[in-house]
Amino acid sequence: xxxxxxxxxxxxxxxxxxxxxxxxxxxxxxxxxxxxxxxxxxxxxxxxxxxxxxxxxxxxxxxxxxxxxxxxxxxxxxxxxxxxxxxxxxxxxxxxxxxxxxxxxxxxxxxxxxxxxxxxxxxxxxxxxxxxxxxxxxxxxxxxxxxxxxxxxxxxxxxxxxxxxxxxxxxxxxxxxxxxxxxxxxxxxxxxx
Length: 193
Prior knowledge:
Number of strands: 12
Structural class: alpha+beta
Mean pLDDT: 88
Shape: globular
CATH topology of the domain at 48-76 and 90-190: tt1808, chain A
Strand content: 25-35%
CATH superfamily of the domain at 48-76 and 90-190: tt1808, chain A
CATH architecture of the domain at 48-76 and 90-190: Alpha-Beta Complex
CATH class of the domain at 48-76 and 90-190: Alpha Beta
Distance between the termini: 51 Å
């Protein structure tokens, strides 16, 4: 069987030493963001305007609700959470919520816990397998509810700790369920022109 012209096989390079969460705290690359996935540094480009706008709108509404009801803490885009160790995994959701009973003090470094609610907003370059891996990492670490927002399709996919998944269309409502009781938001409010 001959090789396909122009085809270059992918080569997986595993670093000789894995990074730790403490190493990631000191890592700096201007204009880049990074996560640590099972000890391997994954560098990403910053998000685009629509992504940032959606994250900001959702974070603002969620924060106002959470503060009014004294429910806990909302974390803004790119806050890292250490969700596994040896090797370390530090994931950074677009928006996150942690109930007050689980977060007595916010550490200087990465909180070593999975948020109760995680919001991931799809970017044009996101591959489905990577998104599902990220959702799986959150749920396996103990996150109870993951919202994946897709601006292009104007919908959200809701993943729950019990393994159930549902789709909310643009005219539907995101519901905080028992994770953020009483919180709801029409998707059209986020996906406005």
